[in-house]
Amino acid sequence: MTDIEKTNLLFFASEAEQGDDNTKENVGGLLSAELSRKLAVEVVGTYALALVAAGGGSPMYVGFALAALVCAFGHISGGHFNPAVSLAVYVRGKSDLKTFFTYALAQIAGAFIGAAQHNYALTDQGLTFAANGGFPELGTFTASGKASAGSAFLAELTATMIFTTVILNVATTRAQAKNSFFGIAIGFVLTALASSIGNVSGGCLNPALGIALPALAEKTDDIWIYVLAPLLGGALGAGFFRFTADPDEFKEKGE
Model pTM? Predict the structure, then answer.
């Protein structure tokens, strides 16, 4: 397999952990050296996303950052940086529960580090996270009030479903194994979706950011939306992928 094939099949990296990790050197008897390396990348990548998102910039900046991070680290960990994506990869059948849970914990840790750094920078200037934004919250349509929890939940769920469906199609299929656009496609669709639902839910689509950013801003009432909705959306995205993908995509190599 060529280097570009290895990179473009980035989410297949999780598949190898099911058999290969047991044969590699263990770190502390719990994690293999290979899995530890992947978790380190997931921490750093999610930290970078949290730092960009916490800065309160346009969704375009988060999309740009994600595209770059996926291209940079996809060949190491799969470049998930999002528990909803890791869940979608698991439901798609290219990961196991150990990988999903350890990735999710690493992603949440990275998000808290990024959020904490931004919070420190604000408090150092006498400002507060809550007053300066940069965390997902129910959007305001008009001056009369905010979007409902129900509409925000639906927005996060459906947007994450589309997001993960795109990821699984451009980055985990043999049919598109040689494409060179996977990172751009992932970054573009995140930008479009986050922008389109920004005035409804804030356009989070990521449980790790949905936990860490509101927690550091001490705005925790709606955290459940940003955890449950993207996870369900990721599972639905994987389910839709399994329904629409060529059956050959689910066969083991050599079958």
Answer: 0.89
Q: Bridge partners of 26?
A: 32
In the predicted structure, residue 16 carries a pLDDT above the cut 50:
no
Inter-residue contact 80 to 186 (CB < 8 Å)? no
User: 130 pLDDT band (50/70/90 cuts)?
Assistant: confident
User: 3-250, superfamily in CATH?
Assistant: Glycerol uptake facilitator protein. (1.20.1080.10)
From the CB of residue 22, how many other CB atoms can be counted at a distance below 10 Å? 9
Vertex 85 angle, CA 32 and 133, to 5° = 110
Distances (CA, A) of 69 to 41, 48, 49, 143, 222: 10, 9, 9, 37, 28
pLDDT digit string, tens, across residues 21-52: 444 445 455 778 999 999 999 999 999 999 99
Residue range 68-101, pLDDT digits in tens: 999 999 999 999 999 999 999 999 999 999 999 9
Structure confidence at residue 149 (pLDDT): 94
